[in-house]
């Protein structure tokens, strides 16, 4: 082993706004695998890789930004942080706050976040409030509190978050040995879309890579403000992590799209579920629903003839499937998938598994 991974701040300190005076609050985030996805390559004719961000300490890419946001908050003397969240930001903020010894308050839309994320925030001792509104309402309140009370905002409107998250693109270039032709990614607040573009851009400008990939971002059909061109008042989708009607990084993301000859598309919930199944059953990667939106986007764009044969494609799979495992327990018709129950009996188990005895066996 050449070296042990030290978290994104120490690995990329020369490319982040940190000094010797910055306390590094880290849980060892980043260094996530880039996984070849032959099943997706076969389906699309492209050369497809998954950047599996579910492998971060709290199970989503949010940790890359949170290590920066909490470290900088502590550097500036903050003793309390606050965020609005569709779930993963609260899980991440709560964990990093514990590590830093500061308190975390999180605002989530009532009844709209996955159980795994809720339990993470509570396990890490955050003050969690369920607001009777949507994510956008939560963010409005968090912003106002941080302006008028001694709490530091760690949502992706905090520029340190996007800075930390750009390290995902650095890793892709290092793992692939080059920048891909296309990068596919789910879009909620559009912070991660913006961050990957920035990371790719910095590496291209430093001569480490020779291109900035075309950035293809995907929202859910019922919450697709960037595709529609205006905010959505009551966003709806089963993919709760991208159920956002008024993206905080809207303008930055539009410039990133224009700069990279990129694209924003909308994906139906049915297609998100289908891509989720392909990821689990054909690629071997267990993701949460929102994370499948980029995969669904690739399948859709490839079917539309928009992806040249042999193009190199990277898809960020943003969060772990264990956050919200219930979706895997549905069969294709929407019913509940029930494992078969058998007696303690070899013949019965063999029959249930449709096994045929090997030659010569009795
Ligand atoms: C936060 C999140 C997103 C959306 O990322 P944005 O930066 O808000 O666009 C997508 N998937 C998962 C799992 C997330 O937690």
Gross morphology is: globular
Question: What's the main sheet like?
Answer: 6 strands, mixed
Q: Please give the radius of gyration in angstroms.
A: 21 Å
Q: Record the strand order, biggest sheet.
A: 1-2-10-7-8-9
Annotation field: number of helices? 14
Category by helix and strand content: alpha/beta
**What ligands does this structure carry?**
pyridoxal-5'-phosphate
Helix content: 25-40%
Query: What is the first-to-last residue Cα distance?
Result: 49 Å
Mean pLDDT: 96
Name the helix and strand elements from N-terminus to C-terminus, one letter apiece: HEHEHEHEHEHEHHEHEHHEHHEH
SS strand fraction: 5-15%
Unreliable residue stretches: none
Number of strands: 10
